[in-house]
Write a structure and sequence with these properties.
The chain is mainly α. It has one domain (3-81). Helices cover 67% and strands 0% of the residues. It is built from 3 helices and no strands.
Length: 82
């Protein structure tokens, strides 16, 4: 497995773990903690996608900026998520 794939999979695994935590904290009505984990999991997923297309690591936490900077070859299957 190449370094690029390992790096991307690491970010995606961490993002999924964070998303699971966000759901758990939401169920416990700890919304401020849930939104923190939801935001960081989204950031990690976007960075993984960006890294695949551009092979660069972004040093930003701005989700809007990360989304706008995604490579054009990234396809979002569910447009309702946008």
């Amino acid at each position: 497995m190449g370094k690029l794939r390992e790096y991307m999979e690491q970010w995606l695994r961490e993002g999924l773990r964070g998303f699971d935590l966000a759901k758990r904290f939401r169920e416990e009505e700890l919304y401020h903690v849930s939104t923190f984990y939801a935001s960081t999991s989204c950031e990690k997923a976007l960075k993984a996608l960006y890294y695949v297309g551009r092979k660069l690591h972004l040093k930003t936490h701005d989700l809007g900026k990360l989304f706008e900077m995604l490579p054009s070859e990234i396809i979002v299957e569910n447009q309702a998520l946008l």
